[in-house]
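Bit of a strange request maybe. I'm writing a small parser for structure token strings and I need a real example to test against, not something I typed by hand. Could someone generate the tokens for this chain?
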Amino acid sequence: MLGTKIGIDLGTTSIIANVDGKGIKINEPSVIVYDTFDEKVKAIGSEAYKMLGKTPDSLTAVCPIRDGYIFDYDALEQMMCYFIQKICGNRIFKPNIVACVPSKTNDIEKVTVTDLLISSGAARACVIEEPLAAALGAGVSMKDPEGHLIVDIGGGTTDIAVITRGCVSISDSVDIAGNTFDDDICRFTRRERDTIIGNITAEKVKKQVGAAKFLDAELAVRAVGKDYITKFPKSIELTSTDIFLCIREHLEKITDSVKYLLSRTQPELVADIIKNGMIITGGGANIRGIDDYFRDKFGFNVYCADLPECCVANGLGVVLDDIKILEENGYVFRSYADMNDFEV
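Reply from user aminoacidic:
Good idea to test on real output. This should exercise your parser:
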């Protein structure tokens, strides 16, 4: 297969690209900023993220992926063109790209993503499920015949799947994840502290003191926003207990989704899961005590993967090392000509 091989995690909050033989070369926020009047691109990725919540009327910030799905096709295409150009430069051969989508993405949506990647500069493109890549990034072998339960808590979606022999046996995806927790924190400060904070501030608070249980040594951080009544600047203290109490309801909903998936899983695979435990990946795995939270709920071992936010991208790196294994497991690479035939 000629051309550079690239694996791309199309996350709601971040775009992470793993280049075959070189590792992760792109890890930037999924944000693009336009000039409001002439619609020219002013910033992409990290530079655009710095403008979120701060843009004047002359600029418009867009997050092209929401809850794991494409919200603005044109904006995402421009982002992909930029990142692919950044990786490949002006090479003769176009790259071959493997990208990830949420597990409940249907066939039409997968074709849409494939078409977008080809329009952005890929010679051939293939789409696989996020939890499969997350499992590979967490160390699960494509050839392992046993079942493994993966809970990938990303920015826009939580993907839950049972992986066996390099395939997704059963899966589900819920629109509850890191961004939902940020919204919970914003609502909590408005309701309990009469203070309005932005989602970026909420995310920083979550990373600094976020917890999925009551900690023995409580953590605290100050957050700055504005008073809900007077609209004047206001600083408040938020603790790890506050964060746990305000995200607990949505943690319960993720738990219910895992329970429902297990209820539909084959008995022999459930037996494997009891032995192998649950693996948590995605940025949500960095919330303190989240492994203990799920362990108490299910009664079997729960592990947080190393560098969980990069598991999907690292899993794509595993795939890029042996690209034929995708075709052996039923995944299809499509080119521009294939897409035209498909449309016909």
